[in-house]
Amino acid sequence: MSETVSPPAKKPGLALWLPLLLFGGFLALVVYGLVRPDNREVASTFIGKPIPAFSLPPASADRPGLSNAQFVGGKPRLLNIFASWCGPCAIESSQLAQLAKAGAEIDGVAIRDRKDDLARFLAANGNPFARIGQDDLSKVQIGIGSSGVPETFVVDAHGVIRHQHIGAIMPEDVPVILQKLKEAEQ
Amino acid sequence: MIAELGLAVLWMAAALAVLQLVAGALALRPQGAAMRGVVRPVAVMQGVLVALAFAALITLFITTDLSVKLVAENSHSAKPLIFKIAGTWGNHEGSMLLWVTIMSLAGAFVALVEKRLAENTLLATLAAQAFVSLGFYAFLLLSSNPFARLPQPAPEGAGLNPLLQDIGLAFHPPTLYVGYVGLSIAFSFAVGALITRDVGPAFARAMRPWVLGAWIFLTVGITAGSYWAYYTLGWGGWWFWDPVENASLMPWLAATALLHSVSVLAARNALRAWTVMLGVIAFSMSMVGTFLVRSGILTSVHAFAVDPARGSFILALLAIYIGGALLLFALRAGTVTEGARFAFVSREAALVFNNVMLCGILGIVLVGTLYPLLTEAFGVKVSVGPPYFNPVSAIFAFPMLVVMAVGPLLRWKDDRGGRVAPILAVPALVALAAGGAALAAGVRLLPTLGLALGAGLAVASLLPLRGRNLRRTPLPIWGMVVSHLGLAVAAMGMASESAFSIETLAALSPGETRQVGPYALTLDRIDPVAGPNWTALQATVSARYAGGEADTLTPQARVFANPPGTRTESALKTRWNGQLYVVLGEEAQDGRWQMRFWWKPFVPLIWLGGLLVGLGGFLALIGRVARDVKRLVAIDKIAFRRERQGR
């Protein structure tokens, strides 16, 4: 055991410039961060606005209905617009379950759905919802700026929409939505 | 009046910082000898003045002077006194003033007590410290004046983020700040030594206590912050890889690496350039972290005013200080020769290995924190979370734990693996047994490795004490043992939390019982309660451990009036073998209440371990300082005797 190893950065010269070089890269990146146009996610016109007043009857036998008053107070909640007849809604169900498991509280709005269809859908795909409102005329859906199913909104404790996710929640979207929920807590 | 006085002394302190920089720079020249006596007193005076300015701001918050903009925006007359005081630094301007205060006080402290360092290097160090302070003075005075008045006094203050009205806030940020900013001393030492080209064991011994001091505060601050987030956020998690948390972790990793490399430099005169570079990097990480959090480039759970203009200012400071220091490093480090060599199996080599692993973790945390920004530059939006950080940092952390077990047993310079192998048989067996048991219990791979390595290291960390007289073992050795043991304990806590936690979400009516792990939990009742500036719903929960006596837990959902907001107040019951964590949720429509329960076996070990790591540092610091004091006293005595004999 007599061979010697040299400590890092033994050769004076180029290696010594490496930290400065890396720092230069960092600077370039954050300068970009400061000047970039501020277009985080989809800029929905409804973000920052309170959800409209509504009161929906229960859509399933074992969950209560949904009204806008229930979003005020407590924790930020997710509002998921879905339907049993929508294919992508079944795809996102495991991500919804994951979100619920991570502590997200989710309310659902079922769009133009039938009670028995919905019960079958929930039995097959799981039921992560605390409440489910039945929206037969898509009034609520249009009122909060959703144009299709599925869509998911992050609503903070003051009933203000903080984030809109259009389309099915894919596995990579889960941390984003959890982050948005966390941000909405402030 | 107090506000104007505060602002005036702040300007005077900034002027003294200019004097300190100029005098320090002149004193290094042969013809500037007259300036040599000026630098130390100026540094002390600067510290005193800034402390006065900070005291003025605290006074304004205590008296709730609503004609001051900062007070009106962040305080409220109905707030309890402790939160009025804590509110001083719970906002951007106040926390920047705290930053400058600590920085100047640290400089003053160095000027007062540092006797080991070569005088020229000390002058360069104090000049560098003043130079860095100046940037932050400029930032404070030009763009973040904490003493600005309102044209009309506000009728009442706007309050403070409810999340921050917690006793944890009173101590956690100042502790962290002492750590962050304390590292500026290491930075200035490194810059000073680069200027005078005087890097050697004496320099390392002088620098070590300062690094150690800052590092202790960082360690305790991170530990406290983790616990604070754990019980206030109500998510049951203890580490989120949030940018603000990463911002505190990165300087800690760099400071930990520095602490070890500075020991190599002190003992063996090796790793000169590397140590100097880490000195620069550690404080750079403090500044980078602060910048990332304040600029709004990365979003996080923490409540700092986000302002791109301020971001640009801090960015300019970063470019000047970090860029300047690294440029100086690139130009000068080549002339700082590398020093003594060592063999592949030696204590130095183990320390180098762990340095590289620590820097590896630092790198992946930095990359992970910046990654969303990086991919956004290429049009992709991502969020980086635990799925990246946990396994990737484990790649570096696990080998590091192994080498941590071996390194302290190796001899300096050259050793044989065969000599230490028999000593390590016991910890290896312990690790294998723990890992085997965990695997048999169906624990996943990462927690299994964490448990095995944590258990093995816990035993191995005590081995440097074998064969020693425990009473006569030097305190720095005790410090190392306790710190390493603490890290092992924390690793076991983390692994246990991840492997064995049980989470239950239940909707309970009063009187109903739910089983969570070993606990039977009964919701007794829900009552309204009120505090000084909040009202709350409080659940009374009886918790019976394995059918034993009932403990009462009272989680709350608090509603704050000024400003309006809510906060969950979780309730905790700590036992020797774990912790019960209860959160009150909302009322369901049928009179039932949503409750969230966690049973987390051995989770307190995480914070206990963190505190042990800090305690180890404290022991080492006492040992080092006591030896320095003894040495100084001895030198004084000899000088005194010589003087008498001379007469």
TrEMBL record, chain A:
The chain crosses the membrane at residues 14-35. Residues 45-186 form the Thioredoxin domain. PANTHER family: THIOL:DISULFIDE INTERCHANGE PROTEIN DSBE. InterPro entries: Periplasmic_diS_OxRdtase_DsbE, Redoxin, Thioredoxin-like_sf, Thioredoxin_CS, Thioredoxin_domain, Thioredoxin_ResA/DsbE_sf. It is found in: Cell envelope. Belongs to the thioredoxin family. DsbE subfamily. Its main location: other. It comes from the Bacteria. The lineage of its organism: Bacteria, Pseudomonadati, Pseudomonadota, Alphaproteobacteria, Sphingomonadales. This is DsbE family thiol:disulfide interchange protein. Signal peptide: none annotated.
Automatic annotation (TrEMBL), chain B:
The chain crosses the membrane at residues 6-26, 38-62, 96-113, 122-142, 177-197, 209-229, 249-267, 274-293, 313-331, 352-374, 394-412, 424-443, 449-465, 477-495, 602-622. Its main location: membrane. It is found in: Cell inner membrane. It comes from the Bacteria. It holds the Pfam family CcmF_C. Keywords: Cell inner membrane, Cell membrane, Cytochrome c-type biogenesis, Lyase, Membrane, Transmembrane, Transmembrane helix. Residues 315-624 form the Cytochrome c-type biogenesis protein CcmF C-terminal domain. It is a multi-pass membrane protein. Residues 89-295 form the Cytochrome c assembly protein domain. Signal peptide: none annotated. One of its GO terms (molecular function) is lyase activity. Required for the biogenesis of c-type cytochromes. Possible subunit of a heme lyase. Belongs to the CcmF/CycK/Ccl1/NrfE/CcsA family. This is Heme lyase CcmF/NrfE family subunit. It comes from Novosphingobium pokkalii.
